[in-house]
Amino acid sequence: MAAEAEAETGTGPGAGEPALTVDELAARAGVTVRTVRFYSSRGLLPPPELGPRRVGRYGPGHLSRLALIEELQHQGLTLAAIERYLNRLPEGLSAHDLAIHRALVASWMPDEAEDTSREELERRAGRALTEEDVDRLAAMNILERHGPGDGFRVDPGLLHLGVRLLDVPIAPEAILAARTVLLEHARAAARELSRLFRDEVETRTPDVAAMKSLSAHMQPLVVQALVTAFQRSLNEELRAAYGDASAAG
Length: 249
Prior knowledge:
Pfam families: MerR_1. InterPro entries: DNA-bd_dom_put_sf, MerR-type_HTH_dom, MerR_fam. This protein is mostly helical. It contains eleven helices and five strands; from the N terminus they run H-H-H-E-E-H-H-H-E-H-H-E-E-H-H-H. It has helices at about 1-10, 20-30, 35-40, 60-75, 80-85, 95-105, 120-125, 130-140, 160-165, 170-205, 210-249, and strands at about 50, 55, 115, 145, 150-155. The strands form two sheets. It has a three-stranded antiparallel beta sheet with strand order 3-5-4. The two termini are about 30 Å apart.
C-alpha cells in the first residue's frame, strides 16, 4: 500500500521519473531552493522521500504542486488563500490530477503575452534552453522572438506545458497537428455553448447583463466539464487502442 501511495502522489520510486534532489526540483520548477523549503515549512508541499544518507527526494507530484502554486500566484492569490485552496484539494492526488487543477486555474489567466528576457525565460522554464528548444516553443506559438537580441514575447499560461513537451519523444509536427485539432474543436464547442446560453437568456429576458451574469456563473463549470469529459474520452480511446494492439499481438 505504501508503494501504491508513493506512485500515486509521484513521490516514490514507482512514479515513473527519476527522484529529484531539492536543487533539481527547484531548477525544474523555476524557483529557488529557499522557496521550496519555505513552501514545505508551510505545508504547501508534502515531505520528500528520504533516500540514502537521509537525502530528500522529490517526484512529479511535488513539481506539479509547485506549478499549481505558481499559477495561483499569477491569479493574484495571497499565500493564505493558496493555503486554503490546497487544503481543500482531495488527499492522494496524482501529478496528473494536479496538472488538471493547474489547467483549470490557468484558464482564467488573461490571454496576453508578456515581454521577457532570455534570462527570465529560462528562470520561468526552470532550465537552460537551447536554440532548438526556443525554435520548438516558437513553433508551438508559446513564444516569439521580440526584436534583436534575446528579447521574447511569451504566453505565460502555456510556457510550462511547452517546456514539458520539449522532453516528450514526439515530432514537433505531431504536436502542432494536435494543437490544431484541439483549437478547432474547442472553438466549435465554445460557439455552440455560447449560442445555447444566448438562446436560454433571450427566451427569459433579452438582457445583456443577464447574459454576462450567466456566463460568469457557468464558465468555471463548463471548463471543468470539458476537461473532465475530454480526459475520460481520451482514456477510453487509449484503452481501446491498446486493447486492439494486445488482441492483434
